[in-house]
Amino acid sequence: MSFPNVIYGRYGQEKVAQSTAINSFPYGQIMVLPDGREFVHARAQTSTALLPGQVQVAGSSIPDHGCGTADQLLANSAAIGATSIVVTAGGTTAIAADYYVDGSMGVRDDTGEGLLYRVKANNSTATGSTCTVTLEPTDGLKVALGGTTTVSLRRSPYRDVLVRATGSAMVGPVVGVPVVAVSAGFYTWLQRRGLGQGLVAATVVVIGQPVYASSAVAGAVAGFNQASTATAVYNEVESLGSCHAISGSTEYATINWNIK
Questions:
Q1: Which residue in 189, 198, 180 sits closest to 244, CA to CA?
Q2: Which residues have CB under 8 Å from 171's CB, separation 6+?
Q3: pLDDT grade, residue 246 (50/70/90)?
Q4: Strand, helix or coil at 23?
Q5: What is each CA distance from 107 to 100, 146, 230, in whole angstroms?
């Protein structure tokens, strides 16, 4: 089944939250409302409910699946155009069936390195066993893989999202903000652009001030200024939008979201 890159919704459709994929859309499907607000199809982590107006991040990656410092996923040789890639699971973490649907396979090292492909499916495997990763039919290998090529598997950033926790380290990048309460494991739309509500941390933000994800209050935003970022971890400070209406601390302000 194919989907348009962007669909156009009606007001209120962004507030859907249900146990199955909305209209069978893939993770990452974009929806735009008539006023230009933009949303992306996502699912809450199975153990964590989501609250409206709180910043969500992608779930953590699995180092043993090629996302750590060690090369753990060795790919078999594969020819140009191949869409069925056999990899050997290293480390101590098995690969669950279809865990990487709508995710990506990146060629990490050696022949074919530097390219990224879209994953359509994968089977399960125990540690040390082989797993077949199926790429999208239109996204076969552009460069053949050699016998020493290693790859990385990353699930869709919109699968198993969770609130941005306190502390300087984030488990994944910011992916959006829910506009309705979402039960654990349910599908919904996360807002990425346009006017919406956002939880404000202890320091009130002012109109026009850029905001970023707070490390002090889970799911909240803080105002971006020289004083507040002087001790911040700079590679984690990213503008998520700007304030359009002031609220009290730990309350909800109107934010013009611009989450990339």
A1: 198
A2: 57, 58, 59, 60, 162, 165
A3: confident
A4: helix
A5: 15, 11, 37
Q: Around Cβ 87, how many Cβ atoms within 10 Å?
A: 27
Tens of pLDDT, residues 50-66: 999 999 999 999 999 99
Half-sphere exposure (Cβ direction) of 51: Cα atoms closer than 13 Å: 9
pLDDT of 170 reads 84
- pLDDT of 168 strictly over 80: no
Tokens coding 186: 């349910």
Determine the residue type at 50: L
Q: Which candidate, 59, 58, 55, 60, places its Cα nearest to that of 217?
A: 55
Go through the chain and tell me how many residues it has. 260
Q: Which residues pair with 88 in a beta bridge?
A: 74, 130
- Looking at the predicted structure, is the pLDDT value of residue 95 above 50? yes
Q: Looking at 1-88, list the stretches that DSSP marks H as alpha helix, in order from N- to C-terminal side.
A: none
Answer yes or no: are the C-beta atoms of 67 and 152 closer than 8 Å: yes
pLDDT(230) > 50: no
109 forms beta bridges with: 150
Q: C-alpha dihedral over 215, 216, 217, 222, to 10 degrees?
A: -70
CA distance 255 to 257: 6
Q: Which residues contact 5 (CB under 8 A, 6 or more apart)?
A: 30
15: helix, strand or coil:
helix
